[in-house]
Amino acid sequence: MISEFRRISPLTLAFAAFAFANSLAIGQTKEAVLPVSMEPNHHVRFDNGTVRVYDVQVPKGKWTQFHEHTEDNFFVFINPATLAYEFKDGRHVTRHVKPGEVGFASTATGAYTHRVTAEGDLPFHAVDIEILHNMQFGSDAAAPKRLEPFFKIVLENSRGRAYDIRLKPGESTALFRRTANTGIVAVTGGRVSETADGKMRRLWDAEPGDFRWSEVSEKLTIQNNSVMDEEFVEIELL
After folding, report:
1. Domains of the chain
2. pLDDT tens track for 70-122
3. Fewer CB within 10 Å: N-end or C-end of the chain?
């Protein structure tokens, strides 16, 4: 036994030990599952007990850790990217996204676990709106839909209605009603102003990915006060 052991070179042993340790590390990484609130790339930006909003930023070429989503969630993509998802059950999915694109993930059949990376030159950047305790907002479910050309419905289901809003410099929307429990995400940076119910206008200076929450129902107009086109997404939770 000793003579047989000695015929194995130190380099071979070192390589075998490294390979074994590396396989253990990979296995441990894939087995470790964090709550989404603990995943290092998900930064909580807003939490009022009704919704929790994450600013998700992942450097290019890096993966998030495996994390579990237990609540329904809407998400708005800020950067164009090709995303690769790996699910805990072994599935792999690739998705191409554009700035302002809105997605939705349901947990009606149970929680889901995945990790994600962005392929290409840009980092992964998205805003994730988690509906805590899968609350129902019902009171504004029958609210009339906003009219184009300024409001384009990009996603609609039983949990919410998402509008993409694009304004040229100086351009204003017509008067519309924003329902209570609406999340607002800036896709581009810039300044917009809102004038509600004839009151003094209020300004919002935003960076890409900034978020606001509206708790009240009101009638208002929005104007682009920037020198560049402005895009943002509003999601009415139903």
Report:
1. 34-134 (2.60.120.10), 151-237 (2.60.120.10)
2. 999 999 999 999 999 999 989 999 999 999 999 999 999 999 999 999 988 88
3. N
